[in-house]
Amino acid sequence: MSDKIKKASRHVSQNEGLIFEHSSPGKRAFDLPHLDVPEVDARKLLGANHRSEGVEGFPEVSEIEVLRHFTRLSTWNYAIDLGMYPLGSCTMKYNPRVNELVARLDGIATEHPLQPQELSQGCLKIMRLLERCLLEITGMDVASLQPAAGAQGELTGILLIRAYLEKQGNARKKVLIPDSAHGTNPATAVIAGYDVENIPSDSQGQIDVEKLAGLVTEDVAGLMITNPSTLGIFEKRIAEIAEILHAKGALLYMDGANMNALAGVARPGDFGVDVMHLNLHKTFSTPHGGGGPGAGPVTMKKILAPFRPGPILAEKKDGSLALEPAGPDSIGRVKAFAGNFGVLVRALAYILAYGPGIRQATEDAVVNANYIRKQLEGVFELPYSLPSMHEVVFSDELQKQHNVNTMDIAKRLIDYGFHPYTTAFPLIVHGALMIEPTESESKEECDYFIGAMRAIAEEAAGNPDIVKHAPHSTRIGRLDEVTAARKPILRWRPEGSQ
Amino acid sequence: MRYLPKSPAERRELLAAIGVKSVEELFSRIPERFRLKEALNLPGPLSESEIISYFKERARENSVGYTSFLGAGVYNHLRSVVTDTIIQRGEFLTSYTPYQAEISQGTLQAIFEFQTLMCQLTGQEVANASMWDGSTATTEAVLMAERVTGRRRVLVARSVHPEYREVLKTYAKNSGLLVDEIPFGADGTLDRNALESAMSDDVAAIVVQSPNFFGVIEYDPALAELAHASGALLVVAITEGVSLGILRPPAEADIVALEGQSFGLPPSYGGPFVGVVATRQQFVRQMPGRLAGQTVDAAGRRGFVLTLATREQHIRREKATSNICTNQALCALAATVHLTLLGKEGLREMAEQNLAKAQFAHGELVKIPGVRSAFHCPFFNEFTIELPGPVEQLNHQLLRDHIIGPLALDAWYPELRRHALVCVTETTTRADITKFAGSLRAALAAHQEKER
Question: What does the alpha-carbon distance between residue B209 and residue B158 come to, in Å, rounded to a whole number?
């Protein structure tokens, strides 16, 4: 190993097959309590519907094998608990463990969404308090906690805009989306029934406001903006952008993926945003869990309230809370039951831990990103030089001359003990290195990261092969993704079967 | 603040290194008038123990100490402590979506195993890495059927979960998809005559749920034949996955949308759960959501990657098969661990116990004068009864005995005025059932007394 690798060293890694490969008939890992009612004849009761043979292929293993199997698998993962996760736009911050505990309490995890509301006041109070906190943080009037994730929050937001415009007689035809936007934005607009018009960024990576003014016609329903943008840069002319849209009767949607740059510092509701979503699994620290679950609450201005998805959290005359059906103008339900409640619980626990001090988290996140930027400027090309907020985007321009690209650098970072940054996004930066440290990293961890990035830049110049064939320290090397897609093997099958 | 790893001196050191005098300077691009001058009005900061106290207080305002007979898409099943132990390992809990395969093999292999388990359960050839829940999986299955067939009308049984149908309508409204509902007959299954007369060559899919919302087993391979005869697909939604331990899987269906909450996930007031879309191999490129696939590295070692990403929003943007990005990975892991623990025998036994308990409960309830079975069809762990009094009023009486009674159906089905959906699982004891029957008997007697 290179003596420049400070943060990581080698460690025994256990091999482990698929769980199906451990299976042997008659082993078991779970016993049911004895049956206290008469046994029944399933075959007779169910007739042709009976699955007499059980689920073919299901594993038969013991408890210790299950525990070891998944524990071994877990050791093959990188995780925030192991170190910095500088994935731009993903906000991989510390996931406080007390949040896990409270989400699992009897009386919280055990509650059925259709139980009487008089026996659900605790759940409803949690939702109410979270709504209030999110409204205070975003500067909005009304919230919906229904959406299951950011993409569903986006859809809810765009459907709200659509319903609002329809009520005025014309839903309009298209949604404007900057070319720097996350892929969910255009995918969402299409599901909401809109055409997408991409708007190019200006030479500084900002929305070209003059061009935008020309594009906003009576056909435009709204603009989906990410602020700060995916470059980590605040759209300075945001209020003007909102005015241009509003003057033509269109609305401003904000993708709240980057709210970690703003919480406690500035509020979208104050700078002209009409509706936005929040990713609770980003800014509000609910664990990413290898890809989810998240939650994507939406906050909005009053004008959109009549169109909210149901059920709606309401306060009754006697002071009790209730989930009530949505009004006649509602966009309808976006998800069964009351949202990803367990995720909402964790997010509220996070907010309560900080209180107004949430601003300090935002400041630290921005300080970390700027510190890394300062230390790596010149080592890596900075395509857009406007001030960064919570993340910084470099490009691989300087390393390309050695035939080393952003993916290679990212993979080499693994050998140095880090998860890669986000590669090749946003699309407006060719060969992007998108780095978001979050507030959870100490100066020491940031310095290790900076040291690793500098060392890799040196390697790219002096020994590019070591970078191009990285990682060298993992259980497996770079995988053949082409074959995986061409001849997909998406499930295990027993040997000998096709 | 305990989550922030910086001392005041370190903060000053970093600011100096950046070359600014104060942190305010870093926010200077935000126009002055939008920068907050005062702290936000938020509760807290709270210590760890204060946070625990707050949520314990809220928990006490909920239903602790009550026995529930609610199901309707959310089921109370036994969960092993092993499942929760595994999913709380930081390497699973605090890892990102496994785009960097070399350091995400744990998550990727677990997803591959999840996909395999879901195929085995549903009798389908491929399953995805998860959807948000059963309701959105059902909607995505319908949108997928629309893409596969190029048709824009779907026939949805009214016996499908009402909230699932509401979600479908929300998505359909703006995509030009026409949703027609098919009524149910006297036996609680969808009305075949109505279905046959609604069928035509513009139908993309027939959508049924099995066991359906009334608890009745709805799936029948003949439905697939009927759909296929008109070039349509059959979509089967399943809200109670445990039923698949004992019920014939919908192997003849074209798409299965499954809610996996029953596999190791607590009710948690409605989420997070885990949805799945499973289908035939031939439709794989029209599927929504992430997929993990098996491949090899340069040395020929087996490994797993996220694959067929050209369907997804981060590559295809407005041409993606779905806008889903974040899914329910940790919930899918919980289901994988849970089903691995149960194994073939455990799942079958759990399903058998549900069947036996539901039979027992059904027998005890219909013994009560005036209570009758609403639909005479096979059921799994839920069934519908008709009561000789208003369900909500009777349920109110039951609360006095700390019983959360069955779900009143009239809010969704006005014609089922006095009908209630009863759910019992392996967690419901014989004593719970006997007590419930006794309380209901007493409540009905009191009600009849008042009527007289």
Answer: 9
Say which of B31, B55, B113 has its CB closest to residue A102: B55
Chain A residues with CB under 8 Å of B6 CB are: 364, 442-443
CA distance linking residue A234 with residue B93, whole number of Å: 31
Put simply, whether B90 touches A (Cβ < 8 Å) is yes
Q: Considering chain A, what is the average pLDDT of its residues?
A: 96
Query: Taking CB atoms and an 8 Å limit, are A40 and B359 in contact across chains?
Result: yes
Q: What is the rounded CA–CA span in Å between residue A141 and residue A300?
A: 6
* pLDDT value at residue B319: 87
Q: Hey, is A201 helix, strand or coil?
A: strand
- The verdict on a CB contact (< 8 Å) between A92 and B96 is yes
- Domain span(s) for CATH 3.40.640.10 in chain B: 81-338
For the stretch B71-83, pLDDT in tens is 999 999 999 999 9
From chain A residues 208-237, the ones with a CB under 8 A of any chain B CB are 233-234, 236
Domain ranges of chain A: 1-76, 101-356, 358-483
A332, A351, A491 ranked by CB distance to B173: nearest: A332
Contacts of B245 in chain A (CB under 8 A): 51, 54-55
Q: pLDDT, tens digit, for every residue of A185-238? A: 999 999 999 999 999 999 999 999 999 999 999 999 999 999 999 999 999 999
**Residue A498: pLDDT band by 50, 70, 90 thresholds?**
low
Interval B211-234: pLDDT, tens:
999 999 999 999 999 999 999 999
Hey, of A237, A490, A495, A497, which one would you mutate to test binding to chain B, going by the most B CBs within 10 A of its CB?
A490
For chain B, residues classed under CATH 3.90.1150.10 are 67-77+344-451
Most B CBs within 10 A among A31, A49, A131, hence the mutation to make, goes to A49
A165 touches chain B (CB under 8 A): no
Hey, is the C-beta of A3 within 8 angstroms of any chain B C-beta?
no
Q: Is B300 on the interface with A (CB under 8 A)?
A: no
> What topology is assigned to A101-356 in CATH?
Aspartate Aminotransferase; domain 2 (3.40.640)
A341 contacts on B by Cβ (under 8 Å) = 268-272
Question: In angstroms, what separates the C-alpha of B30 from chain A's closest C-alpha?
Answer: 6
Q: pTM above the 0.95 mark?
A: yes
The confidence score (pLDDT) of residue B315 equals 84
Say whether the ipTM exceeds 0.95: yes
Partner residues linked to B235 by β-bridges: B207, B255
CATH architecture of the domain B67-77+344-451 equals Alpha-Beta Complex (3.90)
Q: d(Cα A129, Cα A134) in Å, to the nearest integer?
A: 9
A82 and chain B: CB distance < 8 Å anywhere?
yes
A71–B89: do the CB atoms touch at under 8 Å?
yes
Distances (CA, A) of B200 to A8, B229, B232: 64, 10, 9
Minimal CA–CA distance to B319: which of B286, B297, B272?
B286
- CB pairs below 8 Å between A and B: how many? 678
CB-CB under 8 Å, A133 with B330: no
Interval B374-423: pLDDT, tens:
999 999 999 999 999 999 999 999 999 999 999 999 999 999 999 999 99
Identify whether the C-beta of residue A60 lies closer than 8 Å to the C-beta of residue A23.
yes
> What tokens were used for B294?
């098996």
**Does A1 score more than 60 pLDDT?**
no
Domain A358-483 has CATH 3.90.1150.10: yes
Q: Under CATH, which architecture does the B81-338 domain have?
A: 3-Layer(aba) Sandwich (3.40)
Cα angle: A70, vertex A73, A79; to 5 degrees: 110
A313-329 exposure pattern, b = at least 16 Cβ within 10 A, e = fewer: beeeeeeebebeebeee
Chain A nearest-CA distance from B66, in A, is: 9
Tokens for A455?
Answer: 């060392």
